[in-house]
Amino acid sequence: YDCIGLTSVTIGNSVESIGWTAFGDCLKLIDVYCYAENVPFTESSAFVFSPIEKATLHVPAGSINSYTATAPWSGFKNIVALPPFSGEVEIDGINYELNGETKQATVIAKTSDKYSGEVIIPESVEHEGTAYSVTSIGKEAFKYCSGLTSVTIPNSVTSIGYQAFLGCSGLTSVTIGNSVESIEPKAFYNCYGLTSVTIGNSV
Questions:
Q1: pLDDT in tens, 7-24
Q2: Alpha helices per DSSP H over the chain
Q3: Which of its termini does the chain have fewer beta carbons within 10 Å around, N or C?
Q4: Which stretches in the chain have pLDDT values below 70?
Q5: Three-class SS state of 99
Q6: Are 128 and 98 spatial neighbours (Cβ–Cβ below 8 Å)?
């Protein structure tokens, strides 16, 4: 409240509620970026005395109608879609690097755990209402995942990165889709348990 120099606010996607006069009297507020797909419960006075009728509200593309129909968010006269997300996310147990400009996803290594068991990589993933095509297996993505037993790489993937599966001693079978054009050096180095490999026709 009363942050008269505040021009921009970014609200994360896990926010569920915004309290009384939270952004009231913010006289220079011109941009609010709200990543919550579900409209947060927001007190009616959250933006009191702030010039939201002249400001721009940026929300997930699939949520524009919800914000437009819900007070006090409906007080924003200019509600537009957020640009597609770029960055690292985990979706259904697989970590990706998403590129919002190209709408492409790269499978990357887990940050705090290892992949194990059977992994089936999808052709596309969805994040914040945007679909991303899974086009590559990144450098060292599955490196030393000794508990990994099989992996299926979809037709959307065009490249497998350097040392992508290095040291996956428990890996027994790999199926590589028809769109893979390149397999970088040492991609399957020291995969001693590998007994079956199916390579697509584009390599």
A1: 999 998 889 999 999 999
A2: 64-68
A3: C
A4: none
A5: strand
A6: no
